[in-house]
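Posted in: Protein Modeling Q&A

I'm a second-year student putting together a small comparison for a lab meeting, and my supervisor asked me to include a predicted structure for TetR/AcrR family transcriptional regulator. I've never done this before, so apologies if this is the wrong subforum. The sequence is pasted below exactly as I got it from our records. If anyone can share the structure token output, I'd also love a short note on what stands out.
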Amino acid sequence: MPANALQTSPGSAPRRRLPRAAREQQLLDVAEQLFIDKGYDRTSIEDVARAAGVSRPIVYQHHGSKEGLYLACVKRARDLFAVRLAAAREGVDDPREQVRISGEVFFAELERDPDRWIVLFGGAAVPMIGELGHQLTELRFRTVDHTIAHLHDAVTSAGSAVDEERIHAFAHAISGVGEQLGRWWIANPHIPRDRVVQHYTDFIIGGAQLLIGPGLGTRSGPGGDG
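Accepted answer (user: helix_wrangler)
Welcome! Here is the predicted structure, written out as tokens:
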């Protein structure tokens, strides 16, 4: 989550030397919070530099551009999510439980900070066009690749025929389910998270049975994020 770098007023953050890796993370913390508070379009490199207590050349040196900053924020968030998801699913063999855990981790992320989720996972911060849109799509596809791998394992375990087109299509559909169900939940926050996770699990398992078969195998099941 973002650091407390933005709790001071603009321009008041003291300049201090940091190791390169620490500075990169600090700039991401600052930029992420600005994207959440102001929106992507209204956030400038000058805003990031001022809040971080550095000059604009320092920001450019580490991340190249505002687009580079945003991409780095999204990549970091998705990488951290993947780590949490892998840890939560470790040692779990039951396919339905794997899907439920995937939904639990994903929607817990949303519940913890809905605004952050919208900016970094919900696909609403920037138009998905041009070079930035292309690179954001690549990041999403990289996440979906994990779901594709799990589906391959599940199909193989069930002894079903591997249909690459169906596996890829279903993996991307799972991604869309998570994102759209998340948007629906944001609009209906009175619904408990466990019921949202249940809806997600039922839908994914129902679709997976058409793809894999009613047994779904025992070693690995589908499930992922937006």
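A couple of things worth pointing out for your meeting: The two ends are 19 Å apart (CA to CA). The longest helix spans residues 130-158.
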